[in-house]
Structures are given as structure tokens and as C-alpha cells.
Amino acid sequence: MTILENPPPRDQEAEKRDVREECDASCRQLKIKSLTDWADTADPEKLDTVRGALPYVSLSILLAIENKSPGALRVLFCTKSGGVVRRDDPLNPGDEFQVVFRGSQIANRGIGAGNLIPVDKEFVIIRDPSGKETRGKRKPRNDGRGGDGYYDPSGKYIPIFDGYTIKIPAEADKSQYTRTSSRSMSDSGIAGPGQTPPPPKRLETQQSGRGELPHSTETPSRSMLNPSTANPLRTPPNQGRRGAERTGRVELPHSPDIVYVGDSLTVGYAYNNREQQYIAKVGKRVSEMAKDFDQVLGRTPPPKKIVLLGGTNDFYGRAKYSDVFKIIQSMVARVPRGVQIFIGTVPFMGEYYFINDKNLKGLTAQQRAERCRSVNAQIALFNDEIREHYPSQCIDFNQALASPSIPNQPDAKYIPSGKRLGDGAHPGREGRNAMSRLVVDSFSRTA
Length: 447
Known about the structure:
Largest sheet: 6 strands, antiparallel
Number of helices: 16
Helix content: 25-40%
Structural class: alpha/beta
Shape: globular
Distance between the termini: 64 Å
Radius of gyration: 24 Å
Number of strands: 15
Strand order of the largest sheet: 1-2-6-3-4-5
Strand content: 5-15%
């Protein structure tokens, strides 16, 4: 007689995780199908309904909708004077569309003209609200996000925001772009048709939303984890324990019921709290934070509020956003009832940090800039997941500290770059205050 052994008991946490992942995948497909179907409707009332939900839709889902049903994003985010925008309508020379992102900060940051205009339209004219026009030519995006975008004659990406207008040019406008292109390339040091490329110049300045900041020849103070040597680097400057009245610092609530878990960014904005109130260390990755997280949950009594911010060191070490997000999900799933959990989005890293990082020796300036774009592209996708899955628990540090004019880059006001200014990765005083204000506001909103 064959004796059947009892199968080993299945890990309950693994079973719950599988169910959550299955539900997430089903919800994602349902959202894509619903939004795609509604973008095809001619019923204005239904369109108004779906447009009202757009602020809560992640960038990955928006891009999936456009991939499944080309022209859907134009229906959702564009208006046309004297007519209704329809997905299948042909675009003719002279057609103009006004961009209206309808309160979606995710779309305002992540959607470009290349997502709204069909691939067969090589040229566009983009006009900002002040009336300034820029002629753009369609090219593959070089910021790590994939897809196409429109670039001016000097090779600079042309972003679009609320209130911008996109026009399909006539043939005369296209030839004007070509003439301007050769002249602008020559003036800017970029090789035009029939020209010899100039010798590479040493990168000395970084464009930012607030002007150009000189690059230091010194390596800035850094506090990221070096993935090759696993040495945590120094804490950013100006983060000593000085009095709030001297620094104009925004104070976080002092309470043993509140715990901040994270890496050097948490050390930066939460350093005014007693050590038992934050468990953060420079160079930490989310897998290490998970162990700290379990210690926090094991306290007696447990804290009433936990603020979690992690992922910067993982992305710097070239981790994939999906892997980092899964660890965050598993941490949030372990939070018991009665404990409020807040999850922060990760700020973008500045190109200055990569240009001056000695750990990247052997890479050219162009390769370092590409590494920066790749890292920030993963950060953007990770943040979209946080916003989508935890809308009421999300503290959007990224949105507050991001550049208003340069896609996937920090605002120099909050994350400064330059000698004696900052390393381009850690918030300065203004940035730390902005982060603290967001935490205080989130506590007040959920009180």
C-alpha cells in the first residue's frame, strides 16, 4: 500500500502575495480596457467621466493605452478649436491641438508630444502659453524613457505642459526647420550635414531649471552606496544638528509613536528627531530596510505612524523598478491594523552626481549622462507604481523636488549641484524643508 505523504504547508505570506499580484494584474488590464474603450466613445458625458479619473492613472497604464489604441491619449489630453478630437481622424497640415492634462501631474511630467502625435508626423510646431514657437523633429527619446519625442534644431528635447499647443506644419514650415537645423547645429558645435564633428569638449556646466551651475572639478560629498565596494559614503553637507531657529528648518512632530525608515535622504530631512524615531543609514537598500522594518513592527507597543522612503541606492546600483517595488509591497503588507504607513516617492538624481562620481571612472561624460537618464527612468516608473497602488498613503517627494522644465531631473532649488552647493543627489536645506512640510501635511490630512 502506498502511503501518501501530506504536502508541505504552503507559506501563507507567499499565497497572499500571489493573490495580490494576480489582483493587481487583473485590475491593470481592466483599467487599460476601460480607458481604451472610453477613449473611442463619441459620448461627451462618458469622456468627461473618464477624464475626471485621469489624475489617478499611472504613466505605465497611460502608455499601455496608447500602445493598444493609438490616438487614445490625444483624445484624453487634447482639445481642438472648432471640432472634437477623435482617435481615427487624420491629421492634416494646419491642425492644432491644445494640451490639457486635466490635473494629471503624472501626465504633465511623463507625456510628451511624441505620445500624442502619430509616428508618421516627422515635424511639429510647439507653442508655449507665451506664444513662443519651437519647431521640432521626431527622434527616439534619449532620456531613458523609450519611445519618440520632438527635438529642436540644436538637438534639445521639447517638453510639453498644460496650455501648450501642438501644430502640424505645412511643407514650407518643414523646409524652414531643415534650413534652421544646419545653421543651429553649426552654431551649437553639433555637426550638421557635410560638417566634421568638433572635438569633444569637457563638460563644465549643467543645465537646470534655474540657470547654469558651474561644475566643480572636485568630487562632491556623496552618501550613496558604492555598488562595487559597498562602502557607504559621507552624509551631505549642512546636515548637522543646528537649531531650527538658526536654519529656518521645518520641524517634524516629536513622538515615539512616529518612526522614519530609510536611507541618507531620510537622515537628511528627519535628522532633527531623536535617534529612536528614525531608523535610517546612508547607503541602505530596500532589502536592508526590510529587516529594520520588521524590528520596528516588533516593538511593544508598535508605532502609530511609519514613514518609509527607499530605493535611491538600489536604482543607483542599476536595480529594476519592479524588483524594488515588490520589496516595498511586501513591507507594506506586513503592517498590522492600527499602524499608519506612508510611502515616499524617490526624488530624481542630478546628472552632476554621475559626472563627478569617481566610482564611475572609465566611463565617458556621455556614458555617465546616459547612466543618469537610465537611473531616473527607473525611478520614474517606480514612483508611478507607488502613486497608483498607494494613492492615500503616498508622500510625493519626487513631485515636490522635480524640475518644472527638465524631464526626469531634480529642481536645483531643492537638490542643488555644484561646488559648495550640493552633490546633485541629496536635498539642500530648501529641499529638506519641502520634504518635512509634505510629511506634516500628510499627517494632518489623515488625522
